[in-house]
User: Fold this.
Amino acid sequence: MFRSLHMKLVLIMLLLTTSLMTVVGAFLMTNVTSFYIDSFYQQMDDLFSGGTFYATLCAEAAQEDGAARLQTVLEAYAGAMGIDSRTRNYYILDGSTGAFLTGSDEEGGRELAVTTNILTARNGDVGDESNISAGYMDVAIPIRGGDHFYVLYVLDNRATVNELNSQQFLIIGQALLVGLMISVLLSFLLSKTMITPIERLTERAERMAGGDFDTIIASDSSDEIGILTASFNNMASVLKDTLSAVEDERNKLDTLFLHMTDGVVAFYGDGTIMHRNPAAVTMLGQDPIDLDYNSIFGAIYPFDQVLSLQRPHSVKREMAVGSKFFEVYLAPYSDEEDSGALVVLHDVTAQRKNEEMRKEFVANVSHELRTPLTNVRSYAETLQDTEDIPREMELTFLDIIIGETDRMTHIVQDLLTLSRLDSGRTELKMRRFPFADAIERVCRAVELDAQHHRHSLLRQFPKDLPMVVGDQDRLEQVMMNVIGNAIKYTPDGGTIQVSAGESGGKVWMEVRDNGIGIPQEDRERIFDRFYRVDKARSRESGGTGLGLSIARELIGRHGGTIGLADHQGPGTTVRIVLPIRQSGGLEDGHE
Ligand code: ADP
Assistant:
């Protein structure tokens, strides 16, 4: 039950009481003794210092039986001298020999010790030197009368004061006991008033450590403990606010960390992994939690060099994981010695691919334009250099030059269309139109060409297909391109089947031919710019390799899809799907 603070308080009170009583006791006892001694000497002084009593004594001493006479007088003054035979006695000594003659205590007189005061008196002076440490007090007075020389010696054995002191000691002892009891009681009471609020504070602090910041400690007092309690309550509320702000920040960071598209991996100072976000796991192709820095990034930058960087400096490196490319930013997260490192992974695969595509595109454009340009130049030079060129040949050459120029014009026009689509500058003239009519118009337009190649052009679609909202000219351009391709890439005498229908709020159109078909490995790429399965054939038939890419862009702008459909048998099937009603940014036009 004695807790440390209680115990300390009790001990302090006990020590305080004991020391106080000891000091008071010692002071009292010393003072009582001094007072007793002082009053003894004062009494003796009053009696003997040159007054009538002393003169009487001297006169009596001058008689023949001086000692007996002195005794008689002294007996008469015994009361005034405080002689009680028990504690205080007088002795008459022979002044020259120091021998005991008579006195109030015969027995004691015979064993009388020779004190300094007796010697002083025998020398003729009053011996009244007091000594507090001695166990007695005495005074020796020389009495001369005629030829007689006596010494009156008064000796007090201090029994009275000693008894008084013992009594006092007992009283002080008892008082000490009571005092000690009171102080124990008081210290308990005191400790209760002081320690209970401290205990409450301690309990609150423990609760706070456990995360409870809401309990308020009530305190009405305005003393130091009251101020401490108020400060503690205030501190708890500030701490709660601060912690909740920190928690908010942490939550924000956690959310950011969790959902950011860049990968983040944090390492401890020893290179083991502290954190990694889902993006990092996806990018690295595995959960790196059991790996360390060296096994993941050691090859691109040493760990100790990352740690030796000064914030906010970081190092940028690149690394490839599988078919992906990453920009990697490495930095220490603190300037402390035992800091760790943060690594941020930024996926630049698309960027790289775009760059490659751009390079490829530029190379393709240059190549596509160079061929007709070379042809034009060589035919023009031939015309220029050859004299007397037959008119027929001249016309053929000029035809070729015009054909090549047309090709270049096509390419440039297609490129312009694509560039406008890319930059969003193409304005679609949206309006509601019957889908079946548009297909019919395109079929009629290509009919002659199909007949020219002896293809049978089959139409398989209901006339009452729903109306669609879109840019009719552009959509017809796409259909024309797809049917045109079917005509181009089908050997003469083939069958081209154009079918259409409606399903799930969408309309679809399929163009199926039984032509040369597209090899499996090229199926994905025919919508890429300048991609052609058979370049020579495409060129021969005036293709630019841009038709399907323009088609995909346009259909995409209408919220639809275009792709190859899987069908049994030889040939190719291209399928276009369009939503019946446009949603989002495209608005209905006039009807
Ligand atoms: P092109 O101007 O060369 O026709 P496209 O973008 O229209 O360009 O077509 C890309 C390539 O897809 C063509 O060069 C051709 O190799 C292939 N292709 C398109 N349609 C067909 C089809 N119906 N049959 C076979 N190959 C086709």
Summary: Residues 260-347 form a domain with the Beta-Lactamase fold (CATH 3.30.450.20).
